[in-house]
């Protein structure tokens, strides 16, 4: 009896020993988990607000943004290079949120080589003017340095692909002489377009009641464009403005002021936009092909771009659920044959 107890005790001790060894191998002797490295970011400087041309760089104009090391360009200014940035001069206008690079900053303001307003054109961009009206310029709410979207509208007509003339073609009368068809009449240019459905019968040509109606389409083809100038540029040099005015008699001064007021334009007829060189070429082509432009004012802090569908008659009818009216036995009075754009009231001075 005593031997059996001793034997059971030995078995229990061996079992506990095995359990302790297994536990120690899973906890104490297990390798420590490898720490996952946290990605490190580099702080680089960006423009906190719009920095004009020639403005000194101060801490109030700067902000930082964190980027992965592999995305930090060699021309960026990091937080450790702050001393190389403070006190320098902006070589050209810098918009809010733009990463500051070495090419944007200089130790001194570069000497201007042309009019002062050319310094507001960023490198690689062009300025081009387009005609505007009061309605096309948001009631003249567009001013210098505002951001706009540009909408272009144009008319299309069907033309003959060979003659490049407006359809339908003008066909002179045809005469049947034996088996040969000849042309008669003053018109000698054109081509014969036989219709097999007529067989040997005489040819007929349906003449339209009116010329072909053009089809209009409008599209917002430029977004977030900066306005460089509204109206004509001032051609007076800064040196001439800095000169002290000469003493003149009161009557002569009053006459000169009246002449200057009479010369001031009441409303601008053009607006100058900052665009890419390719857009400048496209706008030039549009100007010489009778495109009409309209400006849509937008928030200067909004840099988003929206995919816009072109507006056509089919799009307007389907998108906004415009029905084609049915023919009724009654109509409105007086008769309306043409819809005209309402003329806005004349601008009143404040």
From TrEMBL:
Transmembrane segments: none
Alphabetized InterPro entries for the sequence: SAF
Region (Disordered): 240-264
Alphabetical list of CDD domains matching this protein: SAF_CpaB_FlgA_like
Annotated ranges, domain SAF: 42-106
UniProt biased composition (Low complexity): 241-264
Top-rank taxon: Bacteria
UniProt name for this protein: Pilus assembly protein CpaB
Naturally occurring in which organism (per UniProt): uncultured Chloroflexota bacterium
């Amino acid at each position: 009896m005593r031997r059996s107890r001793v034997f059971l005790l030995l078995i229990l001790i061996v079992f506990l020993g095995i359990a302790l060894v297994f536990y120690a191998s899973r906890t104490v002797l297990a390798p420590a988990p490898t720490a996952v490295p946290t990605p490190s970011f580099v702080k680089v400087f960006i423009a906190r607000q719009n920095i004009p041309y020639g403005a000194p760089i101060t801490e109030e104009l700067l902000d930082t943004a964190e980027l992965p090391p592999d995305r930090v360009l060699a021309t960026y200014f990091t937080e450790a290079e702050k001393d190389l940035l403070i006190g320098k001069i902006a070589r050209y206008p810098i918009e809010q949120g733009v990463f500051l690079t070495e090419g944007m900053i200089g130790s001194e303001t570069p000497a201007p080589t042309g009019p002062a307003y050319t310094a507001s054109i960023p490198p690689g961009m062009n300025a081009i003017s387009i005609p505007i009206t009061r309605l096309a310029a948001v009631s003249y709410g567009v001013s210098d340095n505002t951001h706009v979207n540009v909408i272009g509208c144009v008319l299309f007509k069907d033309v003959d692909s060979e003659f490049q003339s407006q359809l339908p073609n003008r066909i002179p009368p045809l005469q049947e002489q034996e088996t040969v068809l000849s042309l008669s009449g003053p018109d000698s240019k054109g081509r014969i377009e036989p219709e097999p459905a007529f067989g040997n019968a005489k040819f007929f040509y349906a003449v339209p009641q009116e010329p072909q109606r053009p089809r209009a389409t409008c599209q917002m083809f430029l977004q977030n464009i900066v306005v460089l100038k509204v109206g004509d540029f001032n051609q007076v040099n800064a040196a001439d403005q800095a000169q002290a005015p000469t003493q003149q008699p009161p009557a002569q001064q009053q006459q000169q002021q009246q002449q200057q007021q009479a010369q001031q334009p009441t409303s601008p007829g053009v607006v100058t936009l900052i665009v890419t060189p390719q857009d400048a070429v496209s706008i030039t082509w549009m100007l010489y092909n009778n495109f009409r432009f309209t400006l849509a004012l937008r928030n200067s802090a909004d840099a988003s771009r929206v995919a816009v569908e072109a507006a056509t008659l089919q799009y307007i009818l389907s998108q906004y659920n415009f029905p084609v009216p049915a023919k009724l036995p009654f109509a409105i009075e007086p008769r309306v044959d043409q819809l005209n754009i309402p003329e806005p009231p004349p601008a009143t001075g404040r």
